[in-house]
Amino acid sequence: MAETLTHRHEILFIYDVKDANPNGDPIDENKPRIDEETGVNIVTDVRLKRTIRDYLFDHKNMEVFVREVKKEDGNLKTKEDRLDDLNISSADDLINTCIDIRLFGATAAIKNKTITFTGPVQFKFGRSLHRVKLDYVKGTTVMPSKEARKQGTFTEVYTLPYSLIVFHGIANENAARHTRMTDSDLDLLMEAIWNGTKNLISRSKFGQMPRLLLDIEYQEPNFHIGDLDKMVSIKKEDGIEDEALRDISQLTLNILPLVETLQREKGKIARIRYAVDERLQMAPSISQLPELLDGVSISSFSF
Description:
The chain is of the alpha+beta class and 303 residues long. The protein has eight helices and 17 strands.
């Protein structure tokens, strides 16, 4: 059996969305979530985890436990239904069968006993690095409804013209011992974050692009820096207000505070891996990291 996650990891993920809805609020007309005080776009950790699960199931042929599966009557299957579908009769079965349990944990009742797994991988809510503009778009469908046979029905959607979103996460080696998450599971997680975001090709999500993914692996036990999302910011082209941003080419991502923090803590870091989109302008650039963090192993992901 593969060894469980050997070290703590800290994750920074940045992606953007254009003319789409990164995470609708079902109790507010499915509008994109926006902090009313700051105008910042919010994306829940649940949305990112769903992206990861969908990619692992659809593209890596891996079984996931938390998934919307419908019964023949159209209702969604319950946790108990999913346990029966997967022929799971013990906690070991659940862990061994479902990668999302190893990553994110879950609560399930097996043989009338409630079992709770605390997930090693946890994310804060994602937030845009700027204020966003909410667009309300109306249109008509080509096919008429039953009530209006002579014309198409009206459609109404809420979108964001642009949002650059940052997520911060932790992979906890201590919790990994309980769910048996492995280093291979972590590699699949990283691939799913990057490729899963790009493969969200639906009407509300098409237009999302991953821009930067950092995985910081620590050699110091029980240590991580924290608040990596607070150490990055954007510098816009002159004269452009936050709400007027429309493309990644109109800004530069400032990661200098992050790099300075990594320099101070580099003795506790085992290695850093990254993926970066070629259109993202950064200061300093990824190519400068080996020089700025001399002695730390730095490499790019191969997916």
